[in-house]
Hints:
Number of helices: 4
Strand content: over 45%
Mean pLDDT: 81
Largest sheet: 8 strands, mixed
CATH architecture of the largest domain: Sandwich
Number of domains: 5
Amino acid sequence: MKKFLAIVLAVLMTVSLSVVGTAAVVPVRFIRFNHDIVWLRIGGSRTILPEVVPGNAAMPELEWSSSDESVATVDSTGKVTGLSAGHTKITAATADGEHSSFYFLEVRGEDSPVMQLQGVNPGGKLKNSVSINSEDQAGDFFYQSVEEVRSAAFKEGKMAVTQYPGDILKIKPAVLKQELADVGTTLEDTLEVILADGTKCEFLIELKFNSNPYLKFVEIKGHPKRFHGEVGVTYPYVFEMVDKANFIKEISEVEVHITEEPYVPDAPPIVEVGETEIHGKQVVVPLTPVKNGDAYITVFFAYIRNIGVERDSFNWHMDIGSSSASSGAGSDDTEPSATDNAVNSDETIQAIAYGDEKLELKVTNGAAGIAVTTVDTLGNYHTTLTIQNDKMTVSIPGGFGKVNEPGRIYYPMDFSDNLANAADLAAPAKGDGAKTEVVKAGGDMVMPTTVTVTLKTKLTGTVNVYYYNPETRRYTLLASPVAKDGTITFATKQMGTMVLTTGTI
């Protein structure tokens, strides 16, 4: 009996070893960095390793290189060392040349600030305002550090901070302030940031609470909260104005705009809009898809407030049925590519995920809206998504992390150079012989990362680009590019109404 058991045990051990020995190796799809730009001081060192996709694949052997070794060198482990002020590109590639990824490295002088928070140096004060009507009450503060950030925390615990990839700090009150009595109150606390080399940086953060109304998406009555629709099914979308200060009397007007993607002139609507119901500060918008495809929906609200009539909007993308744009996407054998006017298709999202430094996605539709799902995908990959029409190009670099903005459904990328109030907006421009143009470049929004905008213009020389805030009626200088070949190009996070002038405001 013992001999029999010994034989069985030996067989089982052999089978076990055989199974282990033949375990399937998960192939590497691609490697990627979660950093676009890394900062170092002269003499500083930092190691940033890529991640492998899929996550359960083994990291292959990598060969490292620096495009300018006079600026920085990199060793076989990925450790970079800054040598002189300047820029270089750090690349990690597999030995077989099948996969590669990179990030840009900026080396700064020893006297440069070790860290900035939205342009504020250590020891400075950063102010922000949040609404008691917002369920999140958080603000995204961007930092740029020449050393890796090890930790971030508030000294007095009045606020909480979460660190995200892409140089983002999300800050919120430790205790939510959602009472009317909280309006006008201010929180102050000191944010202590510890860098990888042990350097401590302190910033005084001030949060002031206001009562700005918050447009909230409530639900789709009788249907799960999702943005996929079926032909013939009616979806009653419910919105409401959260207004604890009771400044809003009622919503007075609702207008629904629906755009099919890709745009087909004179085509019947892809979604039918039923009779809109207004119940004080709440609105019900019934939508019924009539054919498969992609619809971009914008609901414009006008509401009566104690200071007059104001406007707001809510935007989202609805995919209906099985769109032809996404057929065949995601095949293991084919690396997908984006098609024109399919900015939010499965094809585009797959192309972002499969992309590398050579991949640039171009979409030619002036009314294109970038859905949050698309932006979130872009935030996790180092691909540049380019939105362009005849007169505007917006290039959005990936790798900035996840979008954290309550109520955001998509980022509108519309363009217009024929604004009815252009003359009024241009009136403040001054300067001898100054020439001015007014355009609307996307919605009044802050992009999740710095984008590169190129606009066609008839202006020459240095062009000052101002953003006009329709709420505060104030102008903010964004950039002062030089016109070249009938275009200007500049970097910005702020989109919206822009005044281009050879003078000043």
